[in-house]
Protein: D-inositol 3-phosphate glycosyltransferase
Organism: Microbacterium ulmi
Amino acid sequence: MTPPEHPEPESRPALTVLIGADTFLPHVNGAARFAERLAAGLVKRGHDVHVMAPSDGHRNHGTFIETIEGQPLTMHRLASWRWYPHDWLTFVLPWMSKHHARKALDSVKPDVVHIQSHIVIGRGLAREAHKRGIPIIATNHVMAENVLDFTTLPPALNKVLLKFAWDDAKRTFDRTRAVTTPTRKAADFLEATIDIEGVIPVSCGIDAAEYTADLTPRDANRIVFVGRLTTEKQIDVVLRAIAKLDPALDVTFDIVGNGDQRRNLEQLTHQLGLDERVTFHGHTSDQELRDLLTRASLFAIASVAELQSIATMEAMASGLPIVAANAVALPHLVHDGENGYLFTPGDVDELAARLTDVLTAEPEERLRMQRASLDGVKIHDMKRTLDTFEALYRDEPLPE
């Protein structure tokens, strides 16, 4: 009998994987959530996973076992400092990144390195791993333009910084075996921006079974948004659109998350006369988040800088119609007229019209959109994502 080209996954030796992440718990954002789920998923499959990430502060560093997504992970917490223009961001000193990388590589001796950004930790780790001939996989979650909100530099210098950032990203990615990013649109963006080829779209993935869809008619019109309260999310556009809705709809808006724009958004809420209709929940537990999604009428996102949007996938897994800006990767998740509607970014009147379309839809139409969301999120199953990265780590053909 001819032996199989590859042994069954159960019989393959476990890999030692070193993940470098510039953002990770306790940070709350899509890139951090992906890195956490990836690391935990790999541990659950039997791999030895180590994560390099910033510490809570420059004194709380060292190597620890932490429970992430229910799995024990070996965390290499690096001394980091708070970036004060940002409300939560901590960073590792750039000139220390190679030192930290050498120390971790000496200790872990990984089979493969997987960096989650090209900025500080990922940059140093990629350069040191490349010197040692260790395979490197890079996942890009970054649009450098997003970082410019927090530089405090004048526009002319921001332009120079942006060019430097993308040039440096190319130098980092040129050292890798493969570069991935969450969607085909994001891959096209990256290839056009830094002149590289073969960027592989790999969904961040989601365990849809963790979310509950309520397909029954709603007793109230509740809109929900989940994410960081930052400029590029354009939550002000959603607030202004809600202010234009027919008062008879009696709409409420749940905002889940924190960010540097929270105070400005609270002030805008008051100016628009929406104090009784808008609730800022801040950070919630996972269960509270899922409950808010389950009981909502729809999910609204006006962001213009999403490379995928885990929050939108969570809403889809909760059976919600989605109203989203027609920008970057959101059209990859939201198919206009199927599981919701797209609107022109920043167009308050168009957003208000699309929100009205969903909130006034007949029960059969709403149910059709809900089922389309549930069907659409199936291709983002976390198992498929883990299968793909395991194949990249082993340099094997990718699953279809």
In short: The longest strand covers residues 71-78. The CA atoms of residues 40 and 70 lie 7 Å apart. The first helix runs from residue 30 to 44. The chain has a mean pLDDT of 90.
